[in-house]
Design a protein that fits this description.
The chain is an alpha+beta fold. The protein has helices at 114-124, 171-185, 189-197, 208-213, 238-250, 280-296, 319-327, 353-385, and strands at 2-4, 13-18, 21-25, 39-43, 50-54, 72-74, 80-82, 87-88, 93-97, 103-107, 130-137, 143-150, 157-163, 198-203, 254-261, 268-270, 331-337. The strands form three sheets. Strands 11-12-14-13-15-17-16 form a seven-stranded mixed β-sheet, sandwiched between helices. The chain has a five-stranded antiparallel β-sheet with strand order 1-4-10-6-7, with no helix packed on it. A five-stranded mixed β-sheet has the order 2-3-5-9-8, with no helix packed on it.
Length: 386
């Protein structure tokens, strides 16, 4: 058995390999103590049953995330499914499989590579109502990409959606892929009304350096971007700095920050109830959006999630809290699971790339419902003028 990680987002440490039993450790993020992400290639000389033991699983950033967790496997890096089982004893995560081929890949969640990110940008910008902007560069020189998607020069609503502040949360960019495909290719009346009356500003991957490096949570400088919004800097967190500058330029009426949660096996939303500047208007809009999403997606629920902050106690260094408090608009964090949606489990895929993309498209319907009356009135006025 041979194990390789020298590719985009590859990450694992080999302790030893004996008789088709690999003892492994998850590597720490760059300049950081966070560790959870893994992604590696396995090559076998002959087909044999293989056992993998991740010895430091109990010392990772989210050890509870390994309970009832099953790793993802692929033979072509396009089609991914879950292993049948894995055992976590509180210290090590161990799983055994009999592979279908001599080469395969194992990952914490279905990866979304930098090449796939570039493909997403290139495909989207081919549409007439999609414009690509480079907001700046990361500390390693990669572009911070923004997609502006709209069919109007005078949008009534400005909707910002960002993803992968935490680079190992790849389900977030799969979510964005679903959103971008729906907005760029759709002929559906509801989505068309959104595009004729609103502008979408989408950052598919906030943390391209961290994603390439195989980090779970930080950028190339070891910085957690979702704690930088009060005082971002070009030196440490250019990703947040340039995005925030663009938000100040465009304005924002609705802000969604897309994430994944290692431990909670459900899709849920963290709203901005704890911000100092919370108003009835913001609170009601967020609650209405949550209500809408319950109707538009059978993958969503509101019983399980994070504890609600007391008013005035929210951490304003986090994106959704900061934006809501500073720009006085509804702003929410959407979380998806690394494991499965326990309300609708899938034995083959668990929570997956495809389900994440569909959840993104369902979220667009909830946005439309939030602004339906206002947007349809604006659209009729616009059509009459034309």
């Amino acid at each position: 058995m041979q194990i390789y990680t020298h590719f985009d987002a590859g990450s694992i440490e080999v302790v030893s390999i004996e008789n088709h039993h690999a003892k492994l450790n998850i590597r720490q993020d760059t300049h950081s103590d966070f560790l959870q992400w893994f992604y590696f290639q396995v090559n076998l000389k002959t087909l044999n049953s293989c056992t993998f033991s991740i010895h430091n699983a109990g010392k990772t950033s989210y050890p509870k995330g390994w309970f009832n967790y099953r790793p993802c496997i692929s033979y072509d890096r396009k089609n991914w499914k879950r292993l049948d089982s894995a055992n976590f004893n509180g210290e090590a995560l161990e799983f055994t499989l009999t592979p279908e081929d001599q080469q395969f890949y194992l990952a914490y969640f279905t990866p979304f590579s930098y090449e796939q990110h570039l493909d997403l940008i290139a495909k989207a910008q081919a549409y007439q109502h999609v414009t690509h902007h480079v907001l700046g560069q990361t500390t390693q020189g990669r572009n911070i990409d923004l997609l502006h998607i709209s069919k109007t020069d005078k949008p009534k609503k400005k909707i910002w959606i960002i993803a992968r502040q935490h680079p190992g949360e790849t389900m977030a960019e799969w979510f964005i892929k679903g959103v971008v495909e729906k907005l760029s290719q759709t002929v559906e009346p509801e989505i068309n009304t959104l595009l004729k009356t609103s502008a979408f500003y989408i950052v598919p991957n906030m943390n391209v350096d961290g994603a390439h490096l195989g980090n779970l949570r930080v950028n190339a400088k070891g910085v957690n971007l979702n704690r930088e919004w009060l005082s971002p800097s070009i030196e440490k967190s250019p990703e947040v700095f340039y995005v925030l500058e663009k938000i100040k330029e465009t304005g924002v009426d609705l802000f969604l920050d897309i994430h994944g949660d290692e431990e909670i096996p459900y899709n849920f939303i963290s709203a901005s109830e704890g911000i100092p500047n919370l108003s009835n208007e913001i609170f009601n809009a967020e609650q209405q959006f949550i209500h809408n999403l319950l109707k538009t997606s059978n993958e969503f629920q509101r019983e399980h999630g994070y504890a609600i902050d007391e008013k005035g106690k929210a951490d304003l260094s986090m994106a959704s809290n900061y934006i809501s408090n500073a720009f006085l608009c509804p702003s929410m964090t959407i979380e998806m699971p690394f494991k499965d949606n326990d309300n609708a489990p899938n034995a083959i895929t668990g929570w997956s790339a495809e389900r994440s993309a569909q959840f993104g498209q369902d979220t667009l319907k909830a946005i439309y419902q939030l602004y339906k009356t206002d947007l349809e009135s604006h659209s009729r006025t616009h059509d009459q003028i034309i």
